[in-house]
Design goal:
Blueprint: H1 8-34, H2 42-56, E1 66-71, H3 73-77, E2 87-90, E3 102-106, H4 112-115, H5 119-122, E4 123-129, E5 134-140, H6 151-164, E6 170-174, H7 177-185, H8 190-200, H9 204-207, E7 213-215, H10 223-233, E8 238-241, E9 245-250, H11 253-273, H12 284-293
Parallel strand pairs: 7-8
Antiparallel strand pairs: 1-3, 1-6, 2-5, 3-4, 4-5, 6-9, 8-9
The protein binds 1,3-dihydroxyacetonephosphate (13P) and zinc ion.
Length: 308
């Protein structure tokens, strides 16, 4: 081919095209290299530690219990490409206020004792869309699994707690033995149940001044128990599921764990003394003093009015 027949503009365009593609690929690689390993993320480490701790406390036999942790988009973007969706999973319910929110959630049928050894199989990171009806899986459930069967109660509770406290990030469910036992032998009236727990340890009214709410036995894993739990979450961060377990909500994993831990300790004392003659207790007057000391307002009508 003679020099005059060569179209230098075509060559220039092709070179530009190649340069653009190389630039794009380089930028992609740099972005990927900049991204950190998600298993080193503070939120992931905290989730794994909490699940392990819950198992060690005996609250999560077999696959019992589930946790959902809301994580900010900027935090997740440090670890992954948010446009890469592994698969979409229908949720089966509506949660319109949660679209675009990200949750790290334990998998259904997964054992808390195994979370620390295989986080990518036992946990999943999802983004909510379609008014709550679809979860986009961004990481985890690596064996083809999916989120906990209790996702309705979790997401509906997140929505309810966020209305009360925009800082809420955690919903946690588990089966602590003494709280569960208490639901067989104690009146399930919320005021009566709360007052007994408050009377069992001095710190109880300080940790949960709003008390605990109680649901009767209901079929778990359903939207109905999700709606009922979320309704109860409007007035308290602890909701007892009779003959099943407890739900807790809080601004972080530590706070939520601590709430359940405190209620469970109180239930333990109750189960130790319920069959014995009661000689002493924490009086309502003493509880008012605690409220003053810690500047708290107890659930209205749960303490006898103060003596003048
Ligand atoms: P999942 O295994 O689906 O999380 O269920 C466990 C449980 O505790 C049901 O209430
Ligand atoms: Zn359960």
């Amino acid at each position: 081919m003679a020099l005059k027949d060569i179209n230098f503009n075509d060559i220039k365009d092709a070179a530009k095209d190649v340069a653009e593609k190389v630039g794009e690929a380089t930028r992609d690689t740099v972005e990927k290299l900049k991204r950190k390993d998600i298993l080193t993320a503070p939120f992931m480490i905290e989730m794994i530690r909490t699940a392990t701790n819950m198992y060690d406390h005996g609250w999560d036999e077999r696959n019992g219990g589930n946790i959902s942790l809301m994580v900010d988009e900027e935090e997740i973007a440090k670890y992954m490409d948010l446009t890469e969706v592994i698969r979409e999973i229908p949720t089966g319910f509506d949660a319109p206020t949660l679209d675009g929110k990200y949750f790290l959630v334990t998998g259904t049928g997964k054992y808390f004792k195994n979370v620390q050894y295989a986080p990518e199989v036992n946990l999943g990171l999802i983004r909510i869309k379609d008014s709550g009806r679809t979860a986009e899986l961004l990481w985890g459930y690596a064996d083809g699994g999916k989120f906990t069967s209790e996702l309705p109660a979790h997401l509906m509770s997140h929505a309810a707690r966020l209305e009360v406290n925009p800082e809420n990030r955690v919903v946690m469910h588990c089966h602590p033995g003494n709280l569960l036992a208490m639901t067989y032998v104690h009146d399930l009236d919320e005021k009566a149940f709360t007052r007994t727990l408050w009377q069992m340890c001095t710190e109880c009214i300080v940790v949960f001044p709003e008390g605990v709410n109680v649901l009767p036995w209901m079929l778990c894993g359903t939207n109905e128990i999700g709606v009922a739990t979320a309704e109860k979450m409007k007035t308290a961060r602890l909701v007892v599921w009779s003959q099943h377990g407890i739900y807790g909500a809080g601004k972080d994993l530590d706070e939520t764990f601590g709430l359940i831990e405190t209620a469970e300790k109180a239930a333990e004392i109750y189960m130790k003394i319920a069959h014995l003659p009661l000689l002493n207790t924490i009086t309502d007057e003493a509880m008012w003093l605690l409220c003053d000391r810690f500047e708290l307002t107890p659930r209205e009508g749960y303490l006898a009015p103060r003596q003048a």
